[in-house]
From TrEMBL:
The keyword Aminoacyl-tRNA synthetase does not apply. The gene is rpl33. Gene3D superfamilies: Ribosomal protein L33. GO terms for molecular function: structural constituent of ribosome. It comes from Chromolaena odorata. This is Large ribosomal subunit protein bL33c.
């Protein structure tokens, strides 16, 4: 039986605050999380509120291209 396109695909979430600020001088990088999303239920880009260890607070993490 042939499989079609996978419904659940892996996505990378990146901190939007770190990217917008150009990474503060005191921070050492950009926070990224790896998760999965259901292509049929969420066809648009995923945005979740996650903790950023470089900003030291909860910020919006948006889906990026691979």
């Amino acid at each position: 039986m042939a499989k079609g396109k996978d419904v659940r695909i892996p996505v990378i979430l990146e901190c939007t605050a770190c990217v917008r600020n150009g990474v503060n001088k005191e921070s050492t990088g950009i926070s990224r999380y790896i998760t999965q999303k259901n292509r049929h239920n969420t066809p648009n880009r995923l945005e979740l509120l996650k903790f950023c260890p470089y900003c030291y607070k909860h910020t919006i993490h948006g889906e990026i291209k691979k």
